[in-house]
Design goal:
The structure is a single chain. With 252 residues, the protein is an alpha+beta fold. It folds into two domains: 43-154, Immunoglobulin-like (Sandwich); 158-251, Immunoglobulins (Immunoglobulin-like, Sandwich), CATH 2.60.40.10. The chain contains two helices and 21 strands. Strands 2, 5, 6, 9, 10 and 11 form a six-stranded mixed sheet that branches. Strands 1, 3, 4, 7 and 8 form a five-stranded antiparallel sheet that branches. Strand 5 and strand 6 (92-95) form a beta hairpin. It is globular, with a radius of gyration of 27 Å. The termini are far apart.
């Protein structure tokens, strides 16, 4: 009887160890599943624009937005920014319409010949991306000659300011800027907002904090109703120093 009891004890211990092993494997499996589930898919944007066109022609720009295998139809913002080479400060922002199945589009007529850039600014699901294409309007020889004559530097840094649709005086406002360099998120930069009311000399400076890769945010309040200029200054330890200006209107 003692031998039978010993065998029963050994079998019980073996079964208990096997059950523990299964529990540990199950926990490891659950942990792996949880990690995979929390991994965020990147936002992909396929920007489609003509490579060449004639002056005065109606151009169609499209951006196809996907996240993994899913077509993204719920983007928070899709804009097309258009500018002539060497004139980034005079760029035009065009709001895109939703065509469905992840496709957003807009039309634009460019009247003058030259080399132009079209950049899509897409914000969706807490992600932001802004690919850029080049368009030659008119003769390619004329566009090359004109850009060479201007000797203008075309920045590799893309700066996109996001702000509320309506800004009220004496209310806290979050200003968010997305930065990319060579179509990659620009990280570890020093970003400051220089805010000045049009017609006044004094400016307020607001430091921005990097919330995630390439996304910087600062909070301020505008004291008075009126038109303001927000200059975004971007620097880093590698000698980068870029800036761009945005106009905002503050209401009561």
């Amino acid at each position: 009887m003692k031998k039978i009891g010993s065998w029963v004890s050994i079998v019980s211990i073996a079964l208990a160890l096997a059950a523990c092993g299964q529990d540990e494997n199950a926990n490891e499996s659950n942990n792996t599943t949880t990690a995979d589930e929390t991994q965020v898919e990147t936002l992909d944007v396929a920007l489609d624009t003509p490579e060449k066109a004639e002056a005065g022609e109606t151009l169609t720009f499209t951006a196809t937005v996907t996240q993994g295998d899913e077509k993204v139809d719920d983007a928070d913002e899709v804009m097309f920014e258009v500018w002539k080479e060497g004139s980034k400060d005079d760029s035009e922002m065009i709001e895109a319409s939703v065509d469905g199945k992840g496709v957003y589009s807009a039309e634009k007529v460019i009247e003058n010949e030259g080399k132009y850039y079209v950049q899509s600014h897409v914000t969706a699901r807490d992600l932001h991306t802004m690919p850029k294409n080049e368009i030659i309007i008119g003769s390619e020889d004329n566009a090359t000659s004109e850009s060479g004559h201007e000797h203008q530097h075309e920045s590799e840094v893309s700066i996109h300011l996001m702000k509320p649709d309506e800004i009220k005086a004496e209310k806290d406002v979050d200003l968010m800027v997305h930065l990319q360099k060579n179509e990659e998120a620009l990280t570890e930069a020093n970003v400051r907002f220089e805010i000045s009311k049009n017609g006044k000399k004094n400016a307020e400076w607001v430091d921005a904090v990097e919330m995630k890769d390439g996304e910087y945010e600062g909070t301020t309040s505008f004291k008075e109703v009126g038109d303001y200029t927000v200059t975004i200054h971007v620097e880093n330890d590698e000698g980068l120093h870029e800036h761009t200006e945005e106009n905002v209107t503050v209401t009561q």
